[in-house]
């Protein structure tokens, strides 16, 4: 059973990666959910099953259904920074003062566990951008950029880190323009077809 479980989880994880972006992202997201659910049915207490099923729901924009699974994943491993960050992102998508406060707590905990990882500061930048606090968001984005560029000097960035670095640079430019022009403030709500952050007027519910 263990081999079957790991095969299902690995396959679900692969489809999750493709399910956030690309021409067949909706099909991939649905496939990830099917595989993750099959793995979860085999073992609900495995360290990976709750996280991967939660992320599969997240990938399908079913954020509310992902929350209890992220919570259960943290109960199994409270130091998993991927769970902390994904959980925070799901809450951020759901919006609302309480969700944003909880998301900020999760992002901050992930940052404490991985203080040299610029991705954790990037999420805090997003959190403050979503809450329309551009000065604080800019501070976290600049810190994220510094940390990711330091990592890049020491080794090659992986694809995820490279994407976050690009998004961070764009966020810094965007907020800097906003602060100088007083243009309408926008904040990220997901990934576009190319895997880049897309933006939407915060007054429009989607």
Please write out the topology.
Elements: H1 2-19, H2 25-42, H3 49-59, H4 63-76, H5 81-94, H6 97-113, H7 118-130, H8 134-154, H9 159-181, E1 187-191, E2 197-200
Antiparallel strand pairs: 1-2
Describe the protein's architecture and organization.
The chain is mostly helical and 206 residues long. The protein has helices at residues 2-19, 25-42, 49-59, 63-76, 81-94, 97-113, 118-130, 134-154, 159-181; strands at residues 187-191, 197-200. The chain has a domain at 116-206. Helices cover 72% and strands 4% of the residues. The protein has a two-stranded antiparallel sheet. Helix 1 runs antiparallel to helix 2 (25-42) and helix 3 runs antiparallel to helix 4 (63-76).
Summary of the model, kept short:
This protein has helices at 2-19, 25-42, 49-59, 63-76, 81-94, 97-113, 118-130, 134-154, 159-181, and strands at residues 187-191, 197-200. With 206 residues, the protein is mainly alpha-helical.
Strand/helix succession:
HHHHHHHHHEE
Unreliable stretches: 189-206
What proportion strand? Answer: under 5%
| Overall geometry | globular
Overall average pLDDT: 85
Helical content stands at over 70%
How many runs of DSSP E, i.e. beta strands? 2
Task: Give the terminus-to-terminus CA distance.
Answer: 41 Å
List keywords for this structure.
206 residues, mainly alpha, two-stranded antiparallel sheet, 9 helices
């Amino acid at each position: 059973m263990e081999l079957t479980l790991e095969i299902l989880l690995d396959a679900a994880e692969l489809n999750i990666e493709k399910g956030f972006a690309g021409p067949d992202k909706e099909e991939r997201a649905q496939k990830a959910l099917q595989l993750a659910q099959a793995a979860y049915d085999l073992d609900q207490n495995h360290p990976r099953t709750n996280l991967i099923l939660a992320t599969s729901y997240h990938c399908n924009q079913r954020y509310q259904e992902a929350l209890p699974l992220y919570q259960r994943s943290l109960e199994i491993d409270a130091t998993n920074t991927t769970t902390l960050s994904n959980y925070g992102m799901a809450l951020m998508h759901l919006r609302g003062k309480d969700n944003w406060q909880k998301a900020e707590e999760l992002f901050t905990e992930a940052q404490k566990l991985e203080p040299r990882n610029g991705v954790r500061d990037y999420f805090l930048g997003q959190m403050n951008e979503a809450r329309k606090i551009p000065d604080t968001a800019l501070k976290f984005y600049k810190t994220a950029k510094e940390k990711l560029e330091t990592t890049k000097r020491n080794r090659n960035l992986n694809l995820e880190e490279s994407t976050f670095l690009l998004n961070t640079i764009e966020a810094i430019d965007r907020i800097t323009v906003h602060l100088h022009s007083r243009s309408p403030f926008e904040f990220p709500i997901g990934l576009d077809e190319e895997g880049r952050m897309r933006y939407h007027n915060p007054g429009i519910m989607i």
